[in-house]
C-alpha cells in the first residue's frame, strides 16, 4: 500500500518514519526505523533501529541496527545485525552476516554469512561470501576472495590482493600489491606491485616498489624476504633474502656495501677488480682504508 501524510503521523508517534511507496510495508511491531525510498525496509516486521535509504534498500531487512544507503544495499539481509552498507548493491547478498561494513558500489556484494569484514571502495571484497575479519580498502581490493579459509587479510590499494581466494593472514599495501596471490598464506607485501606474481607461496615478505615482483619459482616460492626497489625481482629458489638485488643467489645477498656508523665504520664486500684474493671479507675504517682482511 501507499503511505500518505496521515500514515507518517502515526508512524512518527511509534518512532518510525517511512517515506516512499511501500516503504516499511510490513513494519507491524517494529520501532525506531527509518525507511526512505520505494520498498525500503519492505519486509521488516519486528526489528528495530534500522535506517534504509534508496530503492529497495534492506528490502528483506529483519536484522537490527542496520544502515543501508543506496540502490538495493543490504537487499537480502534477514537476521544479520549491525551491518552498514553504502553504495549501489553494497552487501547485496548478506543474509545472516553481522558487523560488516561495505562502502562502495558492489562492495561485499556476495557476502552471505561472513562477519566483521570491512570493504571500502567499489568492488572491494566483491566475491567474499563466508570468510570473516577481512579489511579491503581500494577499488577491487581482495576482489576474488571466497570460501571460509580466507580470513584476517588486509589489503590497501587499487586491486591489492585482487586474486586472493583462500589465503589468510596476509597484508597487501600498495597498488596491485600481491595481485596474483591465490592461496598463499601469511604474506606481507608493501609497495606498489610488491609480490605481484606470487601465487601460492607463503610466508614471504616483500617491501619496496616492485620488490619480489618477478616470475620463475617465485610464484610458488615461500619464506623469501626482499627489501628495496626491484629487490628479488626474479628468483629461482625459496628462502632467499635480497637487499637491493633483483635475483639473489644466496640465502642473504646485498647489492652494495654493508656499513655501520659510529666510531669506525665496518664494510663487508666481495672481491672487486682491484682485489686479488677471492672469498675475502675486508674491514675498513671510516676513511675507507682496509684495516684487515679475513679469508674464508
Folded structure, characterized:
With 296 residues, the protein is mainly β. The chain is built from 1 helix and 19 strands. It has one helix spanning 5-13; strands at 17-19, 34-36, 51-53, 67-69, 84-86, 101-103, 118-120, 135-137, 154-156, 171-173, 188-190, 205-207, 225-227, 241-243, 252-254, 258-260, 266-268, 280-284, 290-295. The strands form 3 sheets. It has a 15-stranded parallel sheet. A hairpin with a 5-residue loop joins strand 18 (280-284) and strand 19.
Short description:
With 296 residues, the protein is mainly beta. Helix content is 3%, strand content 21%.
Topology:
Layout: H1 5-13, E1 17-19, E2 34-36, E3 51-53, E4 67-69, E5 84-86, E6 101-103, E7 118-120, E8 135-137, E9 154-156, E10 171-173, E11 188-190, E12 205-207, E13 225-227, E14 241-243, E15 252-254, E16 258-260, E17 266-268, E18 280-284, E19 290-295
Parallel strand pairs: 1-2, 2-3, 3-4, 4-5, 5-6, 6-7, 7-8, 8-9, 9-10, 10-11, 11-12, 12-13, 13-14, 14-15
Antiparallel strand pairs: 16-17, 18-19
Amino acid at each position: 500500500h501507499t503511505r500518505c501524510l496521515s500514515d507518517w503521523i502515526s508512524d512518527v508517534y511509534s518512532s518510525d518514519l517511512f517515506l516512499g511507496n511501500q516503504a516499511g510495508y510490513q513494519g507491524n511491531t517494529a520501532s525506531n526505523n527509518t525507511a526512505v525510498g520505494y520498498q525500503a525496509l519492505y519486509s521488516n516486521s519486528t526489528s528495530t533501529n534500522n535506517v534504509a535509504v534508496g530503492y529497495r534498500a534492506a528490502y528483506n531487512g529483519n536484522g537490527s541496527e542496520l544502515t543501508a544507503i543506496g540502490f538495493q544495499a543490504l537487499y537480502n539481509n534477514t537476521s544479520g545485525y549491525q551491518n552498514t552498507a553504502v553504495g549501489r548493491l553494497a552487501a547485496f547478498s548478506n543474509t545472516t552476516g553481522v558487523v560488516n561494513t561495505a562502502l562502495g558500489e558492489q562492495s561485499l556484494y556476495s557476502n552471505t554469512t561472513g562477519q566483521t569484514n570491512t570493504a571500502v571502495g567499489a568492488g572491494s571484497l566483491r566475491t567474499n561470501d563466508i570468510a570473516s575479519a577481512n579489511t579491503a580498502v581500494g577499488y577491487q581490493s581482495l576482489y576474488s576472495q571466497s570460501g571460509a579459509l580466507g580470513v584476517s587479510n588486509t589489503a590497501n590499494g587499487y586491486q591489492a590482493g585482487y586474486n586472493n581466494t583462500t589465503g589468510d593472514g596476509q597484508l597487501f599495501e600498495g597498488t596491485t600489491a600481491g595481485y596474483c596471490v591465490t592461496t598463499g598464506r601469511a604474506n606481507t607485501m608493501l609497495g606498489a606491485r610488491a609480490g605481484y606474481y606470487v601465487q601460492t607461496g607463503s610466508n614471504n615478505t616483500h617491501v619496496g616498489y616492485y620488490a619480489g615482483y618477478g616470475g620463475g619459482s617465485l610464484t610458488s616460492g615461500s619464506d623469501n624476504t626482499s627489501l628495496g626497489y626491484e629487490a628479488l625481482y626474479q628468483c629461482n629458489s625459496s628462502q632467499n633474502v635480497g637487499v637491493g638485488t633483483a635475483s639473489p643467489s644466496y640465502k642473504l645477498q646485498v647489492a652494495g656495501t654493508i656499513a655501520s656508523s659510529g666510531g669506525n665504520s665496518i664494510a663487508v664486500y666481495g672481491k672487486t677488480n682491484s682485489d686479488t684474493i677471492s672469498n675475502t671479507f675486508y674491514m675498513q675504517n671510516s676513511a675507507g682504508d682496509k684495516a684487515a682482511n679475513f679469508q674464508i
